Amino acid sequence: MTSSYKEKKVIGIGIVHELTGLSERKIRYYEERELIFPARTAKGTRKYSFSDVEMLMEIASMREEGVQTTEIKQDMNKAQKRKIRDHMRRGQLNAQFNMRK
Amino acid sequence: MTSSYKEKKVIGIGIVHELTGLSERKIRYYEERELIFPARTAKGTRKYSFSDVEMLMEIASMREEGVQTTEIKQDMNKAQKRKIRDHMRRGQLNAQFNMRK
DNA sequence: CGTGTAAGGAATTCTGACACG
DNA sequence: CGTGTAAGGAATTCTGACACG
To answer: How far apart are CA B65 and CA B90, in angstroms?
Structure first.
């Protein structure tokens, strides 16, 4: 059930700029590099979630350390795989648990 | 600590319209009647929180039942007082608890 | 590669008002 | 009282491009 406020794409780019301190140019560029995935309204304006905002802040600090967008993307993929692996392991444990009762 | 995503004023009126189904006219009118209190950006555009969105949905259903905005506001005040009363009672209990240990 | 900027258009939002009831 | 709408202006956002490096 991933329908929390944190994931809802409702924030305009102007507010994201205020929240993160990043220029709109940068925000759009990180999307182009596929580091974030805003939604679009019917007429094409971008909408971000609080999750996206947090990701942007992480991107910002990595960029400050000189990390390139490509590397950031690789890190994201690793983190994602770790998450899936953990998720599956938990599923297995639950399966075992259910077998026993 | 009321700094959760739910309270952050980051949503434009267009999205609030999509989320609630209310016309922008209605949304602005309920503000005029002091039922909701959006923030304003530096240049004057309204920003709402998820909390405001929820309140709007409650307002919407009360209006459908024919409840007038004035009455809705009174209900809000009652709910608010109840909240404060409960909050204080809890504070008292905590105080007593702390006395004993 | 990452980011700034000027350009022109399209979409958004704002206010005050008139309308109806 | 509650809500729609047309009006005109101001602010927002979008894309594609040129610039620098």
So the answer is: 34
